[in-house]
Amino acid sequence: MLRIGGVNIPDNKQIGIGLTYIYGIGLSLAKKILKEAGIDPQRRGRELTPQEVNRLKEIIEKGYKIEGELRREKMMAIKRLKDIGCWRGLRHLKGLPVRGQRTRTNSRTVRGNVRRTVGSGKRKPPAPK
After folding, report:
1. pLDDT tens digits for 36-59?
2. Whose CB among 12, 17, 70, 113 lies 3.0–4.6 Å from 24's, allowing a Cys bridge?
3. Backbone angles phi, psi at 74, to 5 degrees
4. DSSP code at position 10
């Protein structure tokens, strides 16, 4: 099993898809990296030679921010927004959509799937003992 950037790349998947398991590398960037390394994206992970794996590691580590470094950078950017108290930072603090989406409906994923429904308004009488 390949290990690039601290992530195990599956042996049985095409290497173009397998690289997307790394945080910060999507399909288009994976294809760009493989083209730069001169590797066919259709090949499986187990079919790569050690030289090709080293070439991939070298390209990814030198040219791109991935995994922990990228996560840290994103967290610092959000922390900066919170610290300066701008609109986006306040939305992050409150756990609401940041980019102008509506909140009357359709914001469950940001709010953590909160289902607030209103009943009929009529209270049920207490159960007899």
Report:
1. 999 999 999 899 999 999 999 999
2. 70
3. -65, -40
4. P
